[in-house]
């Protein structure tokens, strides 16, 4: 696999790192330190957040899900048809439960619409890649008004060079849908944040307290800005891993809330005890076991084992085999299946146990996973109800 085919292997190309092992736990300023100018009605996050600002949990109702059509052979090479097939399957599946909007480059919009069918709305808007979780704004309610936080996407710390359109996507989306825009000095991506909807935020330090995104800012500086921008009152920091994948170990492949006080945690397949991903998961387990949430209550941790790398159907040095990168839609939970029938069934049962009122939909996403991401990375929910969309 050439480095142009994978988000993770792009990092190796630029930084000269060695190959990554199958079954990593991450998911995925230098290139551009400038902040986008106003669009959609700006709100300064440097002012204290209103008491009513809330970063809602993913299990709350969605007005729609945003996705992006894979655009560039410069990024994906000959993997592009495969990732488009995976994105098509995912979009059609999510559209069975809630509205889906797919952004596509204007010259690719007709082909995208043909692929996804009439159940998905294709909107011509320039994009570079399909990682909507990271490039779409993070939505909050501020005194019952929906707003979007623009986290100044810079290609995961400048590691993906073709990101000029994606850097402008948050502002363009907010302008199009007339959603007020919250500005923040923090550079980050949506996949870096996980919330219980009650004021608790999980973040990996490696993906935010990093000079490739926020030079000169301490963890305390960043925590203060996140509290202002998102309205959270408690940040639980996990160490993560710097410099081993393009996201610098986003939390959404490591730890996710299933409910207030309940965290689903990735458990790497048993292997070399010196593996950095196993160490990161162990550190996260220890940190979470000692943490309390915004209500002052301890967290219950449920480990979700990864599949056997010798039994999965996907391949590639950047392949992500974490079930934690699931997406909670209206009435359903979407998670990957990797071909290890025992591990796949176990992960699906864990989801049934924790989301008993939702359909559990397992999809093959081997092409997406080979590029260092998953279902959650490819989707971004807008809070609300479909009738309001």
TrEMBL record:
It comes from Streptantibioticus parmotrematis. Residues 1-31 form the signal peptide. Pfam families: PAD_porph (PF04371). Keywords: Hydrolase, Signal. PANTHER family: AGMATINE DEIMINASE-RELATED (PTHR31377:SF0). PROSITE patterns: PROKAR_LIPOPROTEIN, TAT. Transmembrane segments: none annotated. This is Agmatine deiminase family protein. InterPro entries: Peptidyl-Arg-deiminase_porph (IPR007466), TAT_signal (IPR006311). The keyword Signal applies.
């Amino acid at each position: 696999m050439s480095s142009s085919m994978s988000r993770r292997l792009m990092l190796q190309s630029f930084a000269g790192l060695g190959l990554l092992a199958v079954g990593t736990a991450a998911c995925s300023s230098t290139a551009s330190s400038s902040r986008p100018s106003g669009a959609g009605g700006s709100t300064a996050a440097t002012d204290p957040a209103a008491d009513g600002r809330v970063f809602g949990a993913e299990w709350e109702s969605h007005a729609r899900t945003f996705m992006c059509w894979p655009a560039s052979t410069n990024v994906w090479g000959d993997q592009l048809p495969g990732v488009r097939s995976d994105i098509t399957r995912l979009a059609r599946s999510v559209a069975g439960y809630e509205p889906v909007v797919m952004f596509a480059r204007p010259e690719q919009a007709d082909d995208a619409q043909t692929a996804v069918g009439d159940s998905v709305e294709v909107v011509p808007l320039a994009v570079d890649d399909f990682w909507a979780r990271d490039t779409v704004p993070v939505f909050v309610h501020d005194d019952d008004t929906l707003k979007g936080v623009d986290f100044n996407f810079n290609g995961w710390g400048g590691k993906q060079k073709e990101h000029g359109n994606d850097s402008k996507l948050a502002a363009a989306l907010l302008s199009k849908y007339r959603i007020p825009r919250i500005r923040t000095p923090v550079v980050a991506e949506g996949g870096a944040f996980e919330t219980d909807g009650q004021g608790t935020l999980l973040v990996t330090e490696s993906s935010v307290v990093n000079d490739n995104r926020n030079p000169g800012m301490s963890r305390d500086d960043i925590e203060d800005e996140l509290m202002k921008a998102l309205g959270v009152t408690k940040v639980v920091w996990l160490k993560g891993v710097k410099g081993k994948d393009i996201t610098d170990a986003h939390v959404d492949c490591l730890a996710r809330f299933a409910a207030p006080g309940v965290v689903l945690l990735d458990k790497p397949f048993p292997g070399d005890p010196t593996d950095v991903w196993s160490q990161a998961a162990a550190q996260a387990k220890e940190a979470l076991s000692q943490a309390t949430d915004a209500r002052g209550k301890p967290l219950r941790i449920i480990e979700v084992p990864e599949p056997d790398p010798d039994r999965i159907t996907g391949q590639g040095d950047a392949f992500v085999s974490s079930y934690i990168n699931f997406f909670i839609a209206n009435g359903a939970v979407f998670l990957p299946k990797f071909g290890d029938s025992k591990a796949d069934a176990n992960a699906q049962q864990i989801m049934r146990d924790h989301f008993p009122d939702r359909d559990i939909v397992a999809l093959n996403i081997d092409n997406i996973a080979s590029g260092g991401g998953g279902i959650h990375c490819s989707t971004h929910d807008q809070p609300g109800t479909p009738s309001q969309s």
